[in-house]
């Protein structure tokens, strides 16, 4: 009953017009885990419209974010919230039954490419999530 109530709360929130991208990413993953395919797909479609597609990779960033600094010998690393948000979208793409489609796997590989570029020299990330 607690899980059912939580899913009802999430479904109500998912129907709101103004959801932050981070919230959409979390909800997409939660619906994927709950087996709510239509909700998962609807949120992923919405998120794809807001994706940043650059250099053969895909990620999500906060609206109104400052432009990246383009300096020689400097490698920009995204803030932890953007790494987390993008990772949740990746999980939502890969957590589906039956297994993800070839199209989803191809898109997921573009997300994974961006995430792997965010690793620090020790293999970690700016986020501990």
Automatic annotation (TrEMBL):
The record, for InterPro entries, names:
A2M/Complement_sys, Alpha-macroglobulin_TED, Terpenoid_cyclase/PrenylTrfase
- Any GO CC annotation of this UniProt entry: extracellular space
In terms of Pfam families, this protein maps to:
TED_complement
Q: Alpha-macroglobulin-like TED domain: which residues? A: 2-129
PANTHER family cross-referenced by the UniProt entry: ALPHA-2-MACROGLOBULIN, MACROGLOBULIN / COMPLEMENT
Q: What is this protein called?
A: PZP protein
Organism of origin is Brachypteracias leptosomus (short-legged ground-roller)
């Amino acid at each position: 009953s607690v899980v059912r109530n939580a899913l009802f709360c999430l479904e109500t929130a998912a129907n709101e017009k103004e959801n932050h991208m981070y919230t959409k990413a979390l909800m997409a993953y939660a619906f994927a885990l709950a087996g709510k395919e239509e909700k998962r797909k609807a949120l992923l479609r919405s998120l794809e419209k807001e994706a940043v597609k650059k250099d053969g990779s895909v990620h999500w960033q906060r609206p109104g974010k400052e432009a990246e600094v383009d300096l020689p010998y400097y490698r920009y690393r995204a803030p932890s919230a953007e790494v987390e948000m993008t990772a949740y979208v990746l999980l939502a793409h890969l957590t589906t039954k039956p297994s993800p489609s070839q199209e989803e796997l191809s898109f997921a590989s573009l997300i994974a490419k961006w995430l792997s570029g965010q690793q620090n020299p020790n293999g970690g990330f700016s986020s501990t999530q």
